Amino acid sequence: MSTPDETQFEEAFAEFAHAAELMVDPVDSAVIHGRVRRRRTTKGAMAAALAALIVAVPAAWWLQESKGDEVDLPPADETTAETTEEETASTGSDQPGEVPEGQESGGDEPVLPTFADLVGAELELPQFLPGSGEFNDACPVGPAVLADGTPDWESGEWSMPDGPVWVLKVVHTALEEGGPVQAVALLGCRPGEGLVRQAVVVAGDGDGGWEVTDEILVGDPDGFALYDIAPAATTGVLLMVLDHEPTGGGDGPVGYEIHRYRTGQDLEVVTDSAYLWGVTDIAASMETADNGDGTWTATLTVTNAGDHESHRLQVAACRDSELLDVEEVTMPLCSEDYAGVDLLDPLEPGESVTVEWTLTPAPVEEWSEDQNAAGLYLNGSVRQMVYSVDGFVYDYDPTNSGFAGSVTAEDMA
């Protein structure tokens, strides 16, 4: 047998250290799940080293090692696209019309779909709003053809253009102790202004398609609004439930609870013990200053005003007139829509970052009567990249995430 090199031993020790964490039962898996997924690509050489260590290393050693510095690292920031492309590539079929490998009839373990697998798939679903004929006419479920429900962050898209039923997120987790890993999908539909969501378990149907094998929760947008899902650390799936579906920045803070679902058990409230990375309050403000040369500097300040670290942030903005040029970024007119103009790194609680743009307003003589009275404006908002990671993403106070900056005729005088 070949002798593993030093790197293989280090990797194997680290794998054992983090496997020990799964022996306890913390509520949230954002840290552990992200770490384990990064290690799934370990190759055969490490497996050989690991086999040697099973005999050679006392269990007490790697339990102690699990208290190392890496335990407190934040979760892996993996986008849905990055994850699904890698996972889909390993399970797909090379021949058109051929049943994907592992999804043939007669398998003992459930075949787990990725996000990409469910985009475009047909699924028989529970009703999004049971008993509401008008709403359910807008949300077909027998079957539903699932569209891609992730916003296009690079372009600034925050709404889903296709539909009417979207797949928003897919997580893999065991739902009962000793049970197999299963795929839980968060699905959404917009029958009115608000988004209605449901969480279901999905597996291969044995014929190359997918089927719902269990219904976890259908949210009520008026009082028990399902918003997001995350895998629990060892068993179950976590559900973020809001007091009501947010309707925009004007409706004030919206409260939330975290529930844990396990097969055959009632929902358990675990808000106080859940890991709430990404559940925070993002605040934005803008100031403008005259540079004395016909240009102005607009300074956007983005602050994490909440108690937990954020995910990556997207800045979207627009200008109200062609008479206001903005350097550094391409900014559309507000009559067209917002557009993504910047992506910012995650912020720790209390941390702020600034972004500056150079504004060049046209001479006041070219302004309309309304523009002379109100000025030329920039408008925008800052959001975390929702549904882009395994953990939760939520801004519980959207009232302070918008910003505006202006240059008035008085300023130009």
| Individual helix count | 9
Read across the widest sheet, the strand sequence of neighbours is 3-4-5-6-7
Percentage of residues in helical conformation: 10-25%
Note the beta-strand portion.
25-35%
Kindly provide the radius of gyration, computed on alpha-carbon positions and rounded to a whole number of angstroms: 25 Å
Order of helices and strands: HHHHHHEHEEEEEEEEEEEEEEEEEHEEEH
In the predicted model, the low-confidence regions spanning at least 5 consecutive residues are: 6-23, 29-107
Mean of the pLDDT scores?
A: 77
**What is the total domain count?**
2
Q: What's the main sheet like?
A: 5 strands, mixed
Q: Span between N and C termini?
A: 84 Å
Keywords:
elongated; alpha+beta; 413 residues; four-stranded antiparallel beta sheet; 19% helix; 2 domains; membrane; 31% strand; transmembrane helix; Immunoglobulin-like
